[in-house]
Amino acid sequence: MADQARPESSSARKHRAILDTAEVQFLRDGYTGVSMDELAEKSGVSKQTVYNHFGSKDRLFVELVTSMTTGAGDTLAALGNPPAVPSELAPYFTRYAEEQLRAVLTPRLMQLRRLVIGEVGRFPQLAAALSENGPERSIRTLTALISGLADNGLLVAPHPELAARTFNWLVLAAAINEAMLLGDGAIPTASAQSHHAAEAVRVFLAAYGSVN
């Protein structure tokens, strides 16, 4: 008989409650519009408990960003083994691109991006946290993948990190820009996302696909 999952500890429940409240408060009121006193009250914990768990408002926000962007950064892990032959490249990268678009193009993540951009002049560390835990994390995993595929002769990528950045923004840049500027109604449909993913992969493989 399989072991049952252990019940969540009181500390873990409080940690999650604070993060859940922080997401609602930050996205609604902005970074400067949220106080630790208010977070504590709405989370049902003491102010000292909030500080015990996170240390500061900045650190709380950084952890919130990390938790909100985890899905986008972990796309490769969900795809299984990387391509072993050239015919597997396009399907693999297309699945990756579709999953990235699905994970990133959500109203809550677009709202988070708008919040961070609005505060970047006063709080550049917030933008740094979003960049590090969002696109940069994805680019690091893509770099490792592309490097391995190049070593195996499946891609021609003398500069794997540049190739990873190129592919990442081929997939995401236009869609994110439209959603950021035009609102959630501009988030592409699932069908449009699939079409865009396939085109981004076609362009990427035209540039980096092996000639062998």
Secondary structure: elements and pairs:
Elements: H1 10-29, H2 36-43, H3 47-54, H4 57-73, H5 89-104, H6 107-119, H7 124-133, H8 135-151, H9 160-182, H10 190-208
Outline:
This protein is mostly helical and 212 residues long. The chain is built from 10 helices and no strands.
Stretches where pLDDT is under 50 for at least 5 consecutive residues are: none
Shape: elongated
CATH class of the largest domain: Mainly Alpha
Number of strands: 0
The CATH topology label of the largest domain is Tetracycline Repressor, domain 2
Task: Summarize the main sheet.
Answer: none
Counted by DSSP, the helix tally is 10
Instruction: Write down the secondary-structure element order.
Output: HHHHHHHHHH
Label the CATH architecture of the largest domain. Orthogonal Bundle
The span between the termini is: 52 Å
- Going by CATH, what is the homologous superfamily of the largest domain? Tetracycline Repressor, domain 2
Please describe what this structure looks like:
The protein is mainly alpha-helical and 212 residues long. The chain has two domains: 47 residues, Orthogonal Bundle (Arc Repressor Mutant, subunit A); 151 residues, Orthogonal Bundle (Tetracycline Repressor, domain 2). It has ten helices and no strands. The mean pLDDT is 90.
Which descriptors apply to this entry?
single chain; 212 residues; mainly alpha; Arc Repressor Mutant, subunit A; Tetracycline Repressor, domain 2; 2 domains; 71% helix; elongated
